[in-house]
Every structure is written in structure tokens, then in C-alpha cells.
Design brief:
Layout lengths: L2 H12 L9 H9 L29 H31 L6 H23 L10 H11 L2 H13 L5 E8 L4 E8 L10 E7 L6 H4 L3 H8 L5 H14 L1
Antiparallel strand pairs: 1-2, 1-3
Helix pairs in contact: 1-3, 3-4, 5-9
């Protein structure tokens, strides 16, 4: 396979939805929910939030949520479309000298779009805890829910610079894992399916929490939607 064909195929894969439609949950989010990342032409789109911007008060303030969703996530979607268009233009002109730069930028911005999309659905306005199959998998992989909380909290708080703490399902080992992701795409594992993501870029907390990243992470456990993480796990297991 030559480089041009490889890049064209990569763009087709990039246009896919976040989760395939092989379950009731994933079908519903593809058709009308937050996880639909592209339109019918393969352009990246930002879905409306599944709640009002004051829904997470007082744990996440309305102004921070507005700026975070509208500009940080929104600008990532715009940038992903820009770099995807530039790659396509380079392919049409049969000139691939600059696509290395564009593909790196697309990786950054599309990863931001994916993780932010998951982040919004991972949040609720009431506290709940893992249950059912998710709790069983947590206990199998980490020993207990309390141990997972310690691990993912520390991983999130200690990201160098900006990034994410991620709880993911690794289909190759059939276990859960916790990842420390720098920026939006570095230090990831091939094949992992994110279930729960904790955004520790400063834009996620800088208005209310200033430089207190640790306080923001601890506070976030009051509004984590573990039911959403459980549904993502069920879909991830079926995919594997």
C-alpha cells in the first residue's frame, strides 16, 4: 500500500463515530447523542451538551463549563476540520511533503474532540458509584473501587503539563487500565477504549480552582457519571 492510499484510508477511519452501532446504547448515541463526532460528509461536528451549562453547579461553575465547551472543545473541532481539509488538499494535488505536519496536528485536535466528548457524558449532577459489571471489572483489575480512586486521582494530578487521566478497557488483556495522557494523544495504548476521562488541562478548572489541580480532581468525583462509564464498558467488551 503506497503512502497516498494509506492516508486516504486513515481519513475514512477518522470519520467514524466514537462507538460502533453494535448495541442499543451505541446505536442511540450514534444517531442522536453526544458521541456522534462527524456528519454524513465526514466533517467533524460538536454535538450540543446533554444538559444546561449550570447543570453541574456548584461542582463545576457555569462560566468555566461555557468557556471549556464553547472555545476549547469547539476550537478543537474547527482545527480538526482544518487539518483534515489540508491533508485532502495535499492528496488531491499529489503533494505529500507537508502532510506529516498536518497529520500530527489532526491527531492532537481529533483526540481532543474524542476525549472532550466522553468527558461531558462522564459527568452528572448527582453522585453515584460503580455498580454491576463495571464494579466487578474494577475489583478484578485494581482490587477495589477505593484503590482505583487513589490510582486515577494520582495519575491525573501528576500529569506533566496538560493532559488527562483515563480509565480504559484494554481488549488485548481483557482488563481495565489507567493511563496518564499528556496533551490529548501522548502515552496512550493501542486498542484501548476510554470509559472515563478526567480533564486536567488548566482550562478545565482555572477560573474556580486557580492552580489547585488536586482540589479540582477530588471535587470531580462528586459528579462522575459511573453509569455512563459502565455503558461504555459494555460496548467495549462487545467490540472485543
Amino acid at each position: 500500500m503506497n503512502r497516498k492510499i494509506f492516508l486516504q484510508n486513515s481519513l475514512l477511519l477518522g470519520g467514524a463515530s466514537l462507538l460502533p452501532i453494535d448495541s442499543v446504547f451505541s446505536q442511540s448515541i450514534q444517531e442522536s447523542g453526544m458521541d456522534k463526532l462527524t456528519d454524513d460528509q465526514g466533517n467533524f461536528i460538536q454535538q450540543p451538551l446533554p444538559y444546561n451549562k449550570n447543570f453541574l453547579e456548584p461542582f463545576m461553575d457555569e462560566e468555566t463549563l461555557h468557556l471549556h465547551y464553547t472555545f476549547h472543545h469547539g476550537n478543537a473541532v474547527k482545527a480538526a476540520n482544518k487539518y483534515q481539509s489540508q491533508i485532502r488538499e495535499a492528496l488531491d494535488l499529489n503533494s505529500v511533503d507537508t502532510v506529516d505536519y498536518f497529520t500530527k496536528k489532526l491527531s492532537l485536535q481529533f483526540s481532543s474532540h474524542i476525549l472532550h466528548t466522553i468527558f461531558w457524558t462522564n459527568l452528572s449532577n448527582k453522585k453515584n458509584e460503580p455498580a454491576g459489571n463495571l464494579l466487578k471489572e474494577i475489583e478484578k483489575s485494581f482490587g477495589s473501587y477505593d484503590k482505583l480512586k487513589v490510582l486515577i486521582s494520582q495519575i491525573s494530578k501528576s500529569v506533566d503539563g496538560n493532559g488527562w487521566g483515563i480509565l480504559a478497557y484494554q481488549p488485548y488483556s481483557k482488563k481495565l487500565c489507567v493511563l496518564q495522557c499528556e496533551n490529548h494523544e501522548k502515552l496512550t495504548q493501542w486498542g484501548c477504549v476510554p470509559l472515563l476521562v478526567i480533564d486536567v488541562w488548566e482550562h478545565a478548572y482555572y477560573l474556580k480552582w486557580k492552580n489547585n489541580r488536586g482540589g479540582f480532581v477530588d471535587n470531580l468525583f462528586s459528579i462522575i457519571n459511573w453509569d455512563n462509564a459502565r455503558e461504555r464498558l459494555q460496548t467495549a467488551i462487545k467490540l472485543s
